[in-house]
C-alpha cells in the first residue's frame, strides 16, 4: 500500500533528523502537496541533513545551490552557450533542472537572483533566450534562510514569500535530543539510506491522487474561509487583530492550508479533515504570509502572536 510506504518515509526522516518534527513533517507535506518549503533557522540545525535524507527516500535528482552575493540568475537557470565546433548556441541547463533542489541561504543573493528561482518555482518552466523549457514533473524547492534579524542579507519580498507553501521556523533541540544527536553522529554523520527502496515519481503521483480524495466537510470549508477573511477584515473579528495585521493572506494560502490538512489526514490514515488539524497546521502556511503592522512590530508583536489571536478570534464553524 502506498500509504505504508509514505509512513515508512516519515519514520526514516524522523530517524535521520532527531527531534525536528516540524521540519521533517513540512518536507513530507510539501512532497505530497506539490509545494515548496522555506526553512528558517540558525546554522547547524540539520536543515541540509533533512533535505539529503528526503533525497535518499525519493528517486530522482538532487541539486544544491549555495546563494552568495555574486551569484547570477543564469547560475540557477542555465544559459545558451556558443559551441564553436557546431557554430551554434546550445542550452546548458542550470541546477534548477532537477527534482529536489536545496536553495541554501536564499537571502544572501540580491533580488534579481532570487527572482530567477522564484519564477521557476511558480511557473515550473525556465525561459532562456527564445525558448521556454519545462521543469520536471516532480520539482520541489526547499530553501533555507537565516533568521531575518541577521544583517547583510536581502529579505525576500512578500510577493515571493507567497510562492512557498510552507514556512518552518526551526528551533534548537532540547537537552535530551541533543544527547541523542551526539550518539547518532559520533561515528560520522553520513546518512544511512532507508531500508525500503526510494519512492518513484509514480508512487508520489498515486499518493497525491489519494490525498485529493480526503473529505473536506462544508463546516471545515467555512472555517478555512473565515480564517482567511479574518486576516483581511480583522476589525470584524477582534480589536487586537485589527491593530496587529497590516495585510491579509492570499487565496493561495487558503488553498494551501486545505491541501496540507488533507495530506496530513491521509498520512494519519484518516479520511477527512478535522478542525484541530487546521489549527495545528495553520502556522506552517500562514506564518510567512501575515504582515504585521510596523507599530505592533515595534512593540514585539510577531506573526506567531497574530496567529494565536486569529485562532482565538475565529470560531470553529
Ligand atoms: N536534529 C538532528 N538530528 C541529527 N543530526 C543533527 C541534528 N541537528 C544537527 N545535527 C548534526 O549537526 C550537523 C549540522 O547539520 P547540517 O549541516 O544539516 O545543518 P544546517 O542546518 O544545514 O547548517 P547550515 O545552516 O550551516 O547549513 C550535522 O553533523 C548533523 O548531523
Ligand atoms: Mg546547511
Q: How would you sum up this structure in a few lines?
A:
Helices cover 47% and strands 15% of the residues. By secondary structure, the protein is of the alpha/beta class.
Radius of gyration, taken over Cα atoms and rounded to an integer in Å? 20 Å
Structural class: alpha/beta
Instruction: Report the average pLDDT across residues.
Output: 93
The residue fraction in helices comes out at: 40-55%
In what order do the strands lie side by side in the largest sheet?
2-5-8-1-9
Any guess at the CATH architecture of the largest domain?
3-Layer(aba) Sandwich
Write the topology of this structure.
Blueprint: H1 2-16, H2 21-33, E1 37-40, H3 47-57, E2 62-66, H4 74-77, E3 78-83, E4 88-93, E5 100-104, H5 111-123, E6 125-128, E7 131-134, E8 140-145, H6 158-161, E9 166-169, H7 175-185, H8 201-212, H9 218-232, H10 239-244, E10 245-247, H11 251-267, H12 275-286, E11 291-292, H13 294-298, H14 303-313
Parallel strand pairs: 1-8, 1-9, 2-5, 5-8
Antiparallel strand pairs: 3-4, 6-7, 10-11
Helix pairs in contact: 1-2, 1-3, 2-3, 2-11, 8-11, 9-11, 11-12, 12-14
Amino acid at each position: 500500500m502506498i500509504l505504508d510506504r509514505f509512513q515508512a518515509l516519515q519514520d526514516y526522516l524522523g530517524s535521520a533528523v532527531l527531534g525536528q518534527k516540524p521540519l521533517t513533517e513540512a518536507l513530507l507535506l510539501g512532497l505530497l502537496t506539490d509545494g515548496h518549503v522555506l526553512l528558517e533557522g540558525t546554522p547547524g540545525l540539520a536543515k541540509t541533513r533533512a533535505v539529503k535524507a528526503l533525497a535518499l527516500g525519493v528517486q530522482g535528482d538532487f541539486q544544491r545551490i549555495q546563494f552568495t552575493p555574486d551569484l547570477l540568475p543564469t547560475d540557477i537557470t542555465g544559459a545558451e552557450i556558443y559551441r564553436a565546433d557546431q557554430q551554434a548556441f546550445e542550452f546548458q541547463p542550470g541546477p534548477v533542472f532537477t527534482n529536489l533542489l536545496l536553495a541554501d541561504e536564499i537571502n544572501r543573493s540580491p533580488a534579481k537572483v532570487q527572482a530567477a528561482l522564484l519564477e521557476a518555482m511558480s511557473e515550473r518552466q525556465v525561459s532562456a533566450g527564445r525558448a521556454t523549457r519545462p521543469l520536471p514533473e516532480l520539482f520541489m524547492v526547499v530553501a533555507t534562510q537565516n533568521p531575518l534579524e541577521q544583517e547583510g542579507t536581502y529579505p525576500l519580498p512578500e510577493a515571493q514569500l507567497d510562492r512557498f507553501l510552507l514556512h518552518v521556523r526551526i528551533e534548537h533541540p532540547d537537552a535530551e535530543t541533543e544527547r541523542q544527536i551526539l550518539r547518532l553522529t559520533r561515528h560520522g554523520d553520513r546518512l544511512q539510506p532507508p531500508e525500503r527502496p526510494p519512492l518513484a515519481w509514480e508512487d508520489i503521483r498515486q499518493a497525491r491522487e489519494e490525498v485529493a480524495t480526503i473529505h473536506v466537510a462544508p463546516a471545515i470549508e467555512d472555517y478555512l474561509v473565515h480564517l482567511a477573511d479574518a486576516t483581511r477584515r480583522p476589525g470584524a473579528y477582534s480589536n487586537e487583530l485589527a491593530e496587529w495585521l497590516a495585510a491579509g493572506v492570499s487565496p493561495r494560502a487558503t488553498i494551501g492550508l486545505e491541501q496540507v490538512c488533507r495530506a496530513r489526514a491521509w498520512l494519519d490514515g484518516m479520511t477527512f479533515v478535522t478542525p484541530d488539524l487546521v489549527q495545528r497546521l495553520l502556522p506552517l502556511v500562514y506564518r510567512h504570509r501575515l504582515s504585521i503592522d510596523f507599530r505592533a512590530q515595534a512593540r514585539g508583536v510577531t506573526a506567531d502572536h497574530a496567529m494565536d489571536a486569529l485562532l482565538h478570534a475565529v470560531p470553529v464553524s
